[in-house]
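Action item from last week, closing it out:
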Amino acid sequence: MTRMSEVERSPEVAVAAPLLAEAVGLVAHTPVRNSGTVGGSLAHADPAAELPAVALASDAELVATGPAGTRRIAAVEFLTGPFSTALAPDEILTEIRLPMWAGGHAFVEFSRIHANFAVVGVAALIDLDGDRIRRAALALTGVAPTAIRATAAENVLAGSDVGDMAATAAEAAGVAVQGLTPAGDLHASPQTRLALARTYLRRGIELAMSRARNER
């Protein structure tokens, strides 16, 4: 029941879950964030929404409660299709657990009009070990029936030297979009969505790496 505006203004969230705080600030307009909840967005499971991507990239754990008690659901198992989740008909989402992530973060997206649903969105988390990437987490919206993890791109980034951020980010972005077949609609063709995904993946990775190095 936590409203998005509460998360957006929370200094604790800004420190403990900055990716969530940044993504929430991109959700629609202030009146929507004043009434909409974090749990509501996740349970709604819109393929274009920001928060499912945050949950995926963060390896969130979601707690469902019903007559039979509570159960924990990994974010990767929670999203089952467009506007569909693993919640049973007699369950509600009662808790969202986000592991803390040391390093840099970024949520970037493209929308045709400010505060509209994003055509493509990218959640990125980068953890460094000196000048190398210890681990990375990437999730995308707008390119599949649900938000998705870009695990192949994460594998490209893991262990990479950050000395040439642009080349590393571009390579990972190219790998991430391979095999994707997004649907076209009024807002963008499949080809446009893929081009946007590649561009915003690169931007998100570069921003997360820069923040991990305390450069931005």
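Closing note: The radius of gyration is 17 Å.
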